[in-house]
Amino acid sequence: EQAFAAGQKWAWHNEEVDQAIGQKHNLLMELDRSIEDGKLVVVYQPKWDLSAQALDGAEALVRWSHPDRGLISPEIFIPLLEQAGRIDQLTYLVLRRALNDLGAWDKRRPGLTCSVNISAKLLSDSSFVDQAIAMVKAAAVSNGQVVFEVTETATLADPDASLLALRQIRKAGIGISIDDYGTGQSTISYLQRLPIGEIKLDKSFVQSMVTDKSNQVIVKSTIAMAHELGLKIVAEGIEDQQTMDLLMQYGCDIGQGWHISKPVSSEIFTAVWLDSVAEEQRLSA
Ligand code: C2E
Ligand code: MG
Ligand code: MG
Ligand code: MG
């Protein structure tokens, strides 16, 4: 069903393709409306300090509660927004919420950190970088409490612009973490030249490390290497106690995963994780 059309090189007359494009378009329109109406939900997954055995903070993760389709995963709608060049609006929304919530947590428990995911492409958007920094500076939080998580592909796609942006971000007192480390192409020695403070080991290595010996070796040596280079290391995807024990044995700094907690609303995070009584009960359990 391919056909030449006058004035066009190729035209597709394929119903399935038309339908898929139409659906994508509809989804994007609905998403725009949800962003405008502030209808996206931000949940928080606790980050647990494995050496101090204390709460370090949380990572903000976005959810889209669609009126008919239910909860839609960010893994579906984030790429849509990125392709459409409209990821900045969503990121402002998540950052604004995260800064608000962190400000409220800080009154009960000073010094917690909050990580926000920043899409690759946004690092080469100087107006985004300027505005995001201004938002953090205007918030009632201290240096180092806000962390931007960026994937390593971000820094490779446009190295010059990214490096400039990362330096600016770091200078503003915002921490930088390399997300999903190990899934991309970059070496730790390349990353070490960037102004980062932390790498986040991808869950694909962590989830199976108890049974998969080669992943265990990768995790153990990455932790050692990160430390040699003066970087903190976070493990995501901790699903059981055995994994947590191994990570502690290897000296991993921070852990995240379902075994510690699934992502929860700010209200639940506050009630369960910031209440010192609840914490004592949890620790002695
Ligand atoms: P990520 O930043 O690597 O986040 C970790 C993902 O692993 C989250 O999925 C989290 O819910 C999930 N996870 C946490 N612990 C466990 C565990 O023990 N086991 C397993 N199997 N999974 C675990 P989520 O929330 O679906 O987010 C997926 C990705 O979407 C994130 O990966 C991040 O790249 C992106 N994302 C989420 N929120 C935002 C956002 O506000 N902005 C941008 N640009 N991207 C976002
Ligand atoms: Mg992340
Ligand atoms: Mg990750
Ligand atoms: Mg990921």
Automatic annotation (TrEMBL):
Residues 24-277 form the EAL domain. It comes from the Bacteria. This is EAL domain-containing protein. It comes from Parasphingorhabdus flavimaris. The chain holds residues 490 to 774 of 774 of the full protein.
